Amino acid sequence: MSAPVFLFAAAILLCCTAIFESKKVQLWSIFFILSMVWGGNHYNGSDWLNYVANFNTLSQLPLPEAMSESPFELGFTFLLWVTGKAALNYWVVVAAIGMFNAYALCRLLAASDIRDPGPAAAFLFLVEGWILYQEQLRQSIAVSLVILAILETLRRRYIVAGALVLFGATMHGTALFGLLLIHLTAEIARRNGEPPPPLTTVMWAAATGFATLFILVLTQLGVFYTVGLDRIGTKLDTYQGDSTYGTSLFTAGTLAYAVCVPLLLVSYPIIKRERKELASLAWSAALFWCVAGPFFRVFAVFIRFEHYLLVLMPLAFFVYQRQEPSDRMVARWLSVAALLYASTFSIRQFLQPENFAWSRNYQNAVVNTVLLLPLTDVQSREQEICEGSADYGANLCNLAN
Prior knowledge:
By secondary structure, the protein is mostly helical. The protein folds into two domains: 1-135 and 346-401, no CATH class; 193-322, no CATH class. The chain is 72% helix and 0% strand. The chain has helices at residues 2-19, 23-39, 48-58, 63-69, 74-85, 90-111, 118-128, 131-135, 137-154, 158-169, 178-190, 198-221, 223-226, 230-241, 243-246, 248-251, 255-274, 277-296, 306-310, 314-317, 328-351, 356-359, 365-370, 378-390. Helix 3 (48-58) crosses helix 5 and helix 11 runs antiparallel to helix 18. It is globular and about 55 Å long.
């Protein structure tokens, strides 16, 4: 079962603070744990069905033909192609991506002013550990590259930051959303670390939300096909027309946006007073998510933009760790509240009927090796996933990611 493994990993991440005093040692521990869980991901979820099929096909083609035939972006296509040509299997791709994502998150935590990164890492893991880092491998690379771009922006290396975002777009087109975060980071730097006024952030988030609704209307009118953007039109039609993507799988838990607001209001006075650029960015990104998120859920494909905001959120919630002893009680309660809030993301994910097909059949190459348990072969897992998801009216096995 996936839930026990994930909850156990989250508990270990949380305990890093109590076990190790050095932040550097804590970060190495976090990297090791995340690499084992994400790198050991062995044919879990549904998207791997498409990835493996395309990996087997692309690796047999010449590079120019692979680039033209692939349904993926050029960078990810090349990654699959070169791995296949090196006579390595698809799981090597998964392991490498898992380690790279763990590295990027540790870089983010190291750059923050959070003294003990364990709780923040547990928060990230509970919110994004499955839906992004287990399922959406292409986008997870893009998110990690945007994280590194933000860190380069903080160092005023804007050209490098822009290049990382563009490279991320060759893995997943949504990485272009990172340009907005780079602009926001630069704006905060111009304001000497103070976040933009909350009302300004709310207005920009609302404008983004209404733009989402406008794109939905264009999709329904078939405008993308008219102007020759057939691939985008097909993608948008897929997410709009499929009942699984349009209903319970993605629309549960909209109360999370409202619950997030009071947590942010508690930390805002410190964020504004301390003027720490990364913390200010995280707070603004979280507020942006609270406002724009409900709009994104109207059209499920835009939920993918949420990931670029959610990975920054814990840097705003755990800001109290830097305060004087008089604030430590508040720090403890805010940390507990934030972690309980994060746990609702994982609980929702594991309890949804559409996910039972793969969450109950979860397997991890590292865990199974340690416990001397056999790994189910690919063909058997494919049958389990397809039949199990079909029982809940989902045709995920036939959807290209």
